[in-house]
Amino acid sequence: MSESPFAAILHGLSLVLIMDMDALKLLILDVDGVLTDGRVAPTADDEGGKRFHVHDGCAIKLWKRRGGSVAILSGREGRDVARRAAELGIDWVKLGVADKLAAYEAILASADCVDDAVAYIGDDLPDLGPMSRCGWAVAVADAVPAVKRAAAYVTRRGGGCGAVAEAIELILRKQKRWSPELLREM
């Protein structure tokens, strides 16, 4: 029997209330279904025409401004993703990855980071490996049921609809690094 979305949200909220997020320093994001809505519309040049939400981009910049690091980990290739990552100053970009857990471990080694300092946001089965290892596993609202069950928190927003921004704001608030002045710095 599958868990209802309401039960998954309550589970996530209860863990957020008790979790100490002070150790989180590195945010690792899946792309398709997290930074985008997961739909792929092939174009003439096989790029796929991904669309990213500005709320997520703004939140990523705030996270970095507050000293956090960000990595993108995707099973797909794409110049549009590499371009967006460059615009946002993403620290590590791993595209076309077949084994996300191995790529996750490589990012941690490169970042000189430990599992407990990582928040990972995913939506689909290939994300389960990194989610099982990180300090705070997050599933977007429209993630597959197995990913929601593996997550410590399920966002209210779907992938490509500000879910990353929601998670970043929550982390910064729990770390007491969120303030109205932060928004004015943009």
- SSE string: HEHEHEHEHEHEHH
Please indicate the count of domains. 1
Q: Percent range for helical residues?
A: 40-55%
Q: Briefly note the structural class of the backbone.
A: alpha/beta
Mean pLDDT: 87
CATH-derived architecture: 3-Layer(aba) Sandwich
Report low-confidence residues grouped into runs of 5 or more: 8-14
Q: Fill in the CATH topology.
A: Rossmann fold
Quick one: biggest sheet? 6 strands, parallel
Distance from first to last alpha carbon? 45 Å
Shape: globular
Can you tell me the CATH class? Alpha Beta
Radius of gyration of CA atoms, rounded to a whole number: 15 Å
Instruction: Specify the number of helices.
Output: 8
Number of strands: 6
| Spatial strand arrangement across the major sheet | 3-2-1-4-5-6
Strand content: 5-15%
- The CATH H-level superfamily is HAD superfamily/HAD-like
Q: How would you characterize the overall build of this protein?
A:
With 186 residues, the chain is α/β, with parallel strands linked by helices. It has one domain: HAD superfamily/HAD-like (Rossmann fold). It has eight helices and six strands; from the N terminus they run αβαβαβαβαβαβαα. It has a six-stranded parallel sheet, sandwiched between helices. α2 links the parallel β1 and β2. The longest helix is centred in the first third of the chain and has 14 residues. The protein is globular, with a radius of gyration of 15 Å. 40% of the residues are buried. About 4% of the residues have low confidence.
